[in-house]
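Here comes a specimen:
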Amino acid sequence: MPGGHVDAGEALYVAAARELAEETGVHVPVGALHQIGVWDQVDRDPRGRYVTFAYMAVVPDGTPANAGDDARTARWWPLDELPDELAFDHADIISAVVIPNS
């Protein structure tokens, strides 16, 4: 779940596509992003006040993910093999994803 800050004057979906590319090497056109929700609960992140606008994109099987920028690692996880504990409210965000028919 790559993420980051929105640059001044940058649209949210443009920031989402940029962060995905910077942190994983996965490039998707902004039109391929689908907003799945907004998470803005107070104290959801111990680092400070953050609001998350979450997007998803469907990419072809076998698309490589490589850590870049400020990411330590990048990899794909099958949904049924995710770690028991995820950071912050990331499990809630993943649960909100509805994958379109392929």
